[in-house]
Each structure stands twice: as C-alpha cells, then as structure tokens.
Amino acid sequence: MPDAGIAELRAKLQRLHEDYVRKSKQALAALEREERAIKREIAAKIKTAGQLKVLMRLTAGPAVTSYHSARYPCGRVTFRENYKELAEADAQGRGLLRCTACNWSRHEMDEAEHPSDGS
C-alpha cells in the first residue's frame, strides 16, 4: 500500500500541471486578444491612409464611379486585365467611391497581416 505522503505529492504535482496549463491558456488568450486589437488598428490606419491596392475599370461603358478591392473583388470584376491597379488614395482623388459589394473588411485585415508593399 502506497504511503499517504506519496499520494499527497502526486496530487500536488497534478495541481502544478493543471495550474500551468490554465495559466498558459490564459496567457495565450491575452496574447491573441492583443494581437487582434493591433491588427484592427493597423487595418484602420491603412484604410485612412489610402494605401490599399484597388482596381479601377479601364474598358468603355458607363462612367466609372467606383473602384474595387484588388485582393477580394466582387463578382463584377471578371477580367482583371480590364482593370488598372492603383492606390486607394488615387482612386478617391479621382472622385471614385468604394464598391459596396467587395469584401473590404477582409482586405483591410489581410493587408494588416500581410502588407502588399513589403513593409
């Protein structure tokens, strides 16, 4: 029959491991929250700085009034060769508006994680 002291030490060791796992999970959750907050801040700064790469239609047709996301365009962008890629600030400078069907939030978050200009 095992000594009572051994059982107590094993229980203490088990608690030690459980505490470590709990604290590790808490630290990871805190890190992930902070990482998401920083990425949202980067995305907001990119959005306001007009640095996103966008697409502007070049083909004949109705007047161009909007531009599209270069990374996540809507279904209206069928042939990319019919579009010119430029910075969002340039498109806005031409009086164009964002296409409401493109996935802008995904583009901004993606740009925050993987910048297209290599910075």
Please give a structural write-up.
52% of the residues lie in helices and 13% in strands. It has helices at residues 4-49, 88-93, 104-113, and strands at residues 53-57, 66-69, 83-87, 97-98. The protein is built from 3 helices and 4 strands; from the N terminus they run H-E-E-E-H-E-H. It has a 4-stranded mixed sheet. 13% of the residues are buried. Helix 1 (4-49) crosses helix 3 (104-113). It is rod-shaped. By secondary structure, it is an alpha+beta fold.
Summarize the structure.
Helices cover 52% and strands 13% of the residues. It has helices at 4-49, 88-93, 104-113, and strands spanning 53-57, 66-69, 83-87, 97-98. A hairpin with an 8-residue loop joins strand 1 (53-57) and strand 2.
List the helices and strands and how they pair.
Elements: H1 4-49, E1 53-57, E2 66-69, E3 83-87, H2 88-93, E4 97-98, H3 104-113
Parallel strand pairs: 2-4
Antiparallel strand pairs: 1-2, 1-3
Work out the helix count. 3
The structural class is alpha+beta
Radius of gyration: 26 Å
What would the principal axes of the Cα set say about the shape?
A: rod-shaped
Order of helix and strand elements from N to C terminus: HEEEHEH
Binned, the helix content reads 40-55%
% residues in beta strands: 5-15%
Defining traits:
single chain, 119 residues, alpha+beta, 4-stranded mixed sheet, 3 helices
